[in-house]
Amino acid sequence: MTAPAQTKANNTSKSLSVEDLSWSVAGRRVLDNISFGHQSGEVLGVIGPNGAGKSSLLRCLYSYLKPQQGSIQLFDKALNQYAPSELAQTLAVVLQHNQVESDANLLQWLALGRTPYRSWRASDQAQEMAIIEPLMARLDIGHLAQQSMSSLSGGERQRALIARALVQQPKLLLLDEPSNHLDIGHQIQIMQMIRSLSIGTIACLHDLNLASAYCDRLLILNQGKVHAIGTPAEVLTRDTLRHVFGVNAQISDSSPPYLKYCFPQENRAEDGGREHA
Ligand SMILES: Nc1ncnc2c1ncn2[C@@H]1O[C@H](COP(=O)(O)OP(=O)(O)OP(=O)(O)O)[C@@H](O)[C@H]1O
């Protein structure tokens, strides 16, 4: 696998700061006292087993869910102080489930990503195309420009969604499973592209090898709590894999570390002590 670029975090300035965040639903605490910072420009991967709270955390970060406790500062301003259009110029989100209800063709649909920047005057189409066309080329969807959104394959639609998020020209990108629906070639292409962006990214990822290869730091969530946060080499340990994910794996000494799973798994979670109540 391609070695990652050097760290993207350009300095110690924070784009996002989360303090003591908790969110409960139906009497259950799904997110429990979460605190972390995101450095400007860095790629932060959020990993953890199914149900750990990754998507819920992301939903809090783009203001869809309102945590009952804690604070979120986005570029030094409280998230709940952002007006909708200001937030759309600051954050772009790609969700895990990528259904798109639209009869528009890809190009028309991508142009809607410029809505937060449009005034009452006619939009500047030439300027919008200068933003959209290079992104279509970069995401390998230029040949689909005239095709209707409803006819795209799952992988094409996923790349279209990422392009649409970037058309917004956000300062921070939130991605929930960006490699969903993608073949391995496009998974690597997307992760490499994310690394090459000048803006920072927070991405929920299930593939720990992709996360290790392409993220500056990883935040491991387990049962709604931060289990660990640090570089892939710091947090991807055999103990964590066994206790959080319930798997046995060999971890290379290389940087970033590469995981090799042991098959068959003789000591799965039930025997290996996953941190379940
Ligand atoms: N609106 C809700 N009502 C009830 N339970 C919820 C709600 N939203 C999330 N949950 C529960 O909170 C837990 C965390 O869900 P979440 O989708 O955040 O996990 P995740 O880490 O993203 O999981 P996955 O890897 O499977 O996508 C799950 O047990 C889920 O069922």
From TrEMBL:
Superkingdom of this protein's organism: Bacteria
Heme listed as a keyword: no
Entry's Gene Ontology molecular function annotations: ATP binding; ATP hydrolysis activity
Keywords, ordered alphabetically: ATP-binding, Nucleotide-binding, Transport
Domain (ABC transporter): residue spans on this chain: 16-248
Keyword Nucleotide-binding tagged: yes
Pfam family, one: ABC_tran
Family label: Belongs to the ABC transporter superfamily.
Protein name: ABC cobalamin uptake system ATPase BtuD
Gene name tied to this protein: btuD
